[in-house]
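This week, look over our next protein:
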Amino acid sequence: MATADSKRVVREYFAAVAAGDPEVARFLDDDVTWWVPPGSPMGGTYRGKAAVLELMGAGRDVYDPATPFVIELESLLAEDDRVAAEVVLNARTAAGETYRNHYHFAFRVRDGRLVEVREHLDTRLAQEKLFDPVAGARRTSS
């Protein structure tokens, strides 16, 4: 796949995520792998479309569903089927706080679909803003 095509797929993927597109799975290859740093509560390697979609769904309850994501795509660098993306994610947490975190994604694209994703982020910020408040709310409501 040409470099320009790989970048287009990644741009379209981020636009679909930001729009809350329910068909975002169309960007994932059946054999996709998605790696999240071990410092994250969701850390690990997820293999296959079903596992990656489960990962995406598991993170939904940490965000305010009434507030859309704003994704700032700061840069895209590509060579052949590989795309590096610097992204700033702006969202509202389930606890009502502002969440702004910087991400770096390393993608590999084949036949118009994401086949490999490595996600890098400030895991401490994500833990404090996203996961700790949700866990605390679950403990107090039980």
Remarks:
- The CA atoms of residues 78 and 89 lie 21 Å apart.
- The chain is about 30% helix and 40% strand.
- The helical segments are 3-19, 49-58, 123-141.
- The chain has one domain: 3-141.
